Amino acid sequence: MSATEAVPRHPPVSAAPRGTPQSPLEETGRGTRWAVWVILALFMLWTLVPLVWMLMSSFKNRTDVTAATPQALFQPTLDNYRGLFSGPNNLTPYIWHSVLAAGISAVLAVCLGSLAGYGLARTAMRGKRHLAFWIISTRMAPIAAVVVPLFIIFRGLNLIDTIPGLVLAYLTFNLPFAIWLMSAFFAEVPPSLEESALVAGCTRWQAFWTVILPLTKAGLVTTFILCLVFAWNDYAFAVVFSGPNSQTLPIAASQLVTQTGVDWGQLTAIGTIVVVPMMLAGLAVRRWLVTGLTLGAVTGE
Amino acid sequence: MDRNPLGPSRRDVLRGALAAGAAVTLSGCGAQADAPHVVTVDQWRQFKGATLNFISENTAPTAAIAANTRPFTDLTGITINIVTLELTALVQRVALDLASGHAQYQVIYADPYQVLAPYQRGLVDLRTMQADPNLPHLPGGIADFIPAQMDAAGRFVDPNAYYTLPYDAPTMIWQYRRDLFDKYHDRMANDLGFDPTPSGERTWDEYYRIANWFNKHAGSDVKYGTGHQARQHDSLMNDFSNVLWSYGGAYFDNGKEVGRIGSRDPGPCRLDSDAAIAGAEFYQKLLAIADPASTTWDWDGVGAAFRAGRLAMCPNWHEFAASNEQVMPGKTGYSPLPRGPVATANMYGGTGVGISGNTRPHERGAAWLFIVWATSPQTQLANLKSKAGGGTPTRTSVYELPEVRAAEKRPSPMPNMLTAAAVRQAWEPDKIGLRPKIPMWNECNTAIFTQLSRMLTGGATPPDAMRTIKARVDQIVARGWVA
Asked: pLDDT tens digits for B194-230?
């Protein structure tokens, strides 16, 4: 008997009758619902206004962007973006360094984090909880506490001002996070599934690869996106470990804070360039991201 | 499962991994190569093929040099990579680089207070380079640098040694709306009873009265008479210090020398003196009639507000002149800051370029070529003309060039030169404002602007704020400094 045959057939899903509450919120009174909508609207404004403002400012000229009375209507210009890709501080290498360092470190964090997280979820070793806490506690250490020893190690290994150095630096905070998150996802998967796979003749690796991993797709995507965002936005490690050959986008942004002022137009243009790819990545995988961030609670996975 | 007796055991695999790791580590720790050196009669070409890294704050001269490094490469055959960072990040990076024993950055933008004073032992005494017969000498020698700047930016403790060459020279001056002062001159003079035209002969009290006059009578032109960089930030210490010194206050005994040459042990803080408290009281009074947004502005904020037409005048760094002229061509005037009851002071914020002590001999020589070239009269003139930079020269000879002299008047192709008359006075030894050049200044500075901010927001009276700063600074200084 195959696994599919064992699952009882459900009646097809249809829309609930009109007026039937679909959520606890709908069961509440009109006043409560209005209050919730207002709070949500305020939260939306709180999060979106700065982003929209940044986007608009990136198209303003030098006078408009620092005008005493902020203007919503203005003559748009691409000068700020042009300025970023011409002249001595061309942004292209910074983007390339960011893509490489953040991308590779996120991929490695997910790969290694999955393996370690699976082992952590399934092991019955003594002190498992302590080990799990120790792993995540390394993520809690303030960056200032680890920067100096890491710098000395990296200097000894000639990893300063290299992309592999940055990848390794990002892994120091992404890997514990990935292990912790993935172990939580693996713990949600019933062990009976892999036991069935083992009984059916799979090796432990095959059970992991063909049965367990596909079931934690939401976790993999969530972990990858979060690791990517952490590394993409990192400034503290990049400022210490990067150099002329490996500077990333957040460093480029900081360079616009000059002795004689801040170039707000170009700063908001860089901000837009930093934010947009991450927003698009988040939107592209939002289905798995929402599921993953709630550890499957939304869809019941 | 049976283990293959002929195959490697788990212990063997671990041993192998450890050995491989150690080998990689040791190979990585190998000595770094020096820069190439060729024997040639042309001293400028002897390090052809070398690559230098220069770490700098994003300043006008660095922007100008970064926009066109070709002249240096053509002259020397040396490639120069320029990394610009915000000052705090730069200090952190330089500290790590100096402590590591290797010079990733051979050329260092050495802020006198945050790099030179705390890490002077990590910088090369440039006298050794100037004395080397195999290296080109500084054109005009160090005597061509403006003396007060040479001392403030280049020296530390030893009055003969110099560790950096003055590279930029932002200085706080009085920036005002010349069009409005012209428009209201007679009315103001009549109402106030003195000639309100800004100059170094005006007093801070007169500055206050002028600002108040604008508040009351010129609302159709500007919102406020004055604005200040009074955010809880380094800028607040700068803005306050001008008033403090002009009232006769000082951070330490022998404050002028501690500012000019520097000290590792400046003695007790003197901000609890009557003069310092009087200065703080005036500063609080001045800020009470200033644009209320002043407590949220650093130099960039007050500069933007001034350019936006919100203020009639403000103290700010003179290199903002280029932005002022861009937005309000012909409308701005510049003068030294007002004097107080005791003295006059214009805060100096210049910096030098130095060479890392971790450099190897040829790297060091190549770095010397770069700093000689970067501070040479020709490069400073090119920076002045650069659209990417601007800045202001640090050499007397450059200010005497006919085309630079001509640029002091409108229409000026070098707008920062419109401030030349003001800064020339501001850099006189008795008028330049020099904060204490001590290794622990960064921490003291934080204590100072934090308490000043409390004072301005009503959290402390001026005497309380000054006494609290004194107590905190004394603690910091007593701890000493090891680097």
From this structure: 999 999 999 999 999 999 999 999 999 999 999 999 9
Q: Which of A62, A159, A261 sits opposite B303 (nearest CB)?
A: A261
CB distance from A149 to chain B under 8 Å?
Answer: no
Tell me the shortest Cα–Cα distance from B275 to chain A, in angstroms.
31
Residue B3 burial class via C-beta count within 10 angstroms: exposed 0-12, middle 13-18, buried 19 and up = exposed
Which of A159, A240, A244 lies closest to B96 in CB terms? Answer: A240
β-pairing verdict for B351-355 and B107-110: antiparallel
The alpha carbon of residue A89 is apart from the nearest alpha carbon of chain B, in Å, by 8
- pLDDT, tens digit, for every residue of B317-332? 999 998 899 889 999 9
Q: Which of A257, A167, A148 is nearest to B57 (CA)?
A: A257
AA identity, residue B304: A
For A196, the enclosing helix (H) or strand (E) is: helix A191-199
- CATH T-level fold of B172-347+428-479: D-Maltodextrin-Binding Protein; domain 2 (3.40.190)
Radius of gyration of the CA atoms of chain A, in A: 24
Residue B58: which of A148, A159, A258 has the nearest Cβ?
A: A258
- B305 to chain A: which residues are within 8 Å by CB? 68
Nearest to A261 among B83, B300, B388 (CB): B300
Domain boundaries, chain B: 43-170+350-400, 172-347+428-479
Ordered domains of chain A (ranges, CATH)? 81-293 (1.10.3720.10)
Residues of B in contact with A260 (CB under 8 A): 59-60, 170, 299, 303, 317, 319-320, 322-323
User: What are the strands, taking DSSP E only, across chain A?
Assistant: 257-258, 261-262
> Residue A11 has what pLDDT?
61
Please tell me which residue of chain A has the smallest CA distance to B304.
Answer: A66
Q: ipTM value, please give it.
A: 0.73
Beta bridge partners of A261: A258
CB contact under 8 A, A244 and B82: yes
Superfamily of domain B43-170+350-400: Periplasmic binding protein-like II (3.40.190.10)
Residue pair A174/A231 in contact by the 8 Å Cβ criterion: yes
CB contact under 8 A, A259 and B319: yes
Hey, what are A61's tokens?
A: 């000229």
